[in-house]
Amino acid sequence: MTQNLIKTVFRKEILALSAYKVAEAKNLIKLDAMENPYTWPEQVKEDWLQLIKECPINRYPDPEAKALLATLRQTNKISAQSGVLLGNGSDEIIQLLLMAVPEQSCVLAPSPSFVMYQQVALSLGLNYQSTPLLADSFELDLPAMLKTIEQTKPALIFLAYPNNPTGNLFSAEAIMSIIEHAPGLVIVDEAYAPFANASFIETLTDKPNLLVMRTVSKLGLAGLRLGFIVGDTAVIEQLNKIRLPYNINSLTQVTAEFALKNQALFDQQTQQICLDRAIVLAQLNQLPHLTAYQSAANFILFRTGKNQAARVFEALKAQGILIKNMSPQGGILTDCLRVTIGQPEENKAFIEALTSIMESL
Ligand SMILES: *Cc1c(COP(=O)(O)O)cnc(C)c1O
Questions:
Q1: Domain boundary, last residue among 261, 290, 319
Q2: pLDDT value at position 242?
Q3: How far is the CA of 90 from the centre of ligand 1 (A)?
Q4: Cα 294 to Cα 279: distance, rounded to the nearest angstrom
Q5: Which of 5, 83, 159, 191 is most exposed, with the fewest beta carbons within 10 Å of its own?
Q6: Pair 211, 85: CB distance under 8 Å
Q7: Does ligand 1 have an atom closer than 6 angstroms to the CB of 195?
Q8: pLDDT at 251
Q9: Over the stretch 97-133, which tens digit does the pLDDT of each residue have?
């Protein structure tokens, strides 16, 4: 009975999906989700609480989040010529983009990349296409991408820069070529901008089909759920029509504005994370049978020996350390694990546990 009900009510694409699962991390050292491991000094927390106290929570939030928007424009060096749209996390913006294109549209991204592009595209019944990255370098296969663009005329192309889960920055020339050949929009997803010395923000004013998307999540505000996308005002205007009017709640608006005005605090934290990333990378590459890849983000992808990813992942978890097993995604991620850079003591615990696991394999 219920099965029949389910089948009549839901689209077949949704019946075929599985939910995005988030691992339970209670009592574990959490190095699985690209979070910033640091909190704020007590005085900063006190100042924040003062602002929260005055927040008129009985009222709807400012639908345009004007104060926050002005701060974001300033801290991200966004040109006054460009339009900006805010989302409840950049995940919501990915959903808005995909909701806005015609039925049957093709959507293209390299593979592997951020899983939400595919998850949301499929849930909306769009034609999702992916082009494999080059196996040795994780670089874009530009000829293959251009061929797919020519054949499928994608309405949207998603390029994560740096890419998740590989951590590398794709060739900027290859991205420019894709932007120039794309018949639709190209979204450069800069979720890891705080850890990378590269961006397409300054290219925006020359390329009307380019959008740059960012988030405050990886910077250190994952709990707020705030992302934004920058681009041509005419493109942003269309997207704004399907944005729900109060998608950025009052507490997020007040907190993000306050936090971004403490930019020096985040600069210090992200610099520390980048220093520790170099240490963890070197330590991983000293272990036998492991290959760790260079990263421009706050995580490192590494490859274990053949068929050992699940064993290593479980052994780490048994020792209280949660990372992410990428191997089930297959393809060039077979045998791969991904670790987020934590505080120095957490990284040390991870490397020590991994060292003993690799010795006992
Ligand atoms: C984490 C991540 C996001 C999602 O960010 P939210 O703003 O937290 O929704 C988007 N894109 C990439 C590539 C990511 O890794």
A1: 261
A2: 96
A3: 6
A4: 12
A5: 5
A6: no
A7: no
A8: 97
A9: 999 999 999 999 999 999 999 999 999 999 999 999 9
Say whether both 92 and 220 belong to one domain.
yes
Evaluate whether residue 4 is within a structural domain. no
CA distances to 32, 34, 101, 192, 311 from 84, in Å: 30, 25, 19, 18, 45
Boundary-marking domain end, from 261, 282, 299: 261
Neighbours of 47 (CB within 10 A): 13
User: Given ligand 1 and candidates 76, 217, 326, which is best to mutate, with the most ligand atoms within 8 Å of its CB?
Assistant: 217
Are 230 and 252 in a shared domain? yes
Please tell me if the CB atom of residue 215 comes closer than 6 angstroms to any atom of ligand 1.
yes
pTM of the model as a whole: 0.97
Cα 191 to middle of ligand 1, angstroms: 6
| Run of H or E including 2 | helix 2-9
Task: Kindly state whether residues 67 and 181 are assigned to the same domain.
Answer: yes
Question: How many Å lie between the centroid of ligand 1 and the Cα of residue 226?
Answer: 10
Q: Does ligand 1 come within 6 angstroms of the Cβ of 160?
A: yes
- The residue whose CA is least distant from atom 1 of ligand 1 is 191
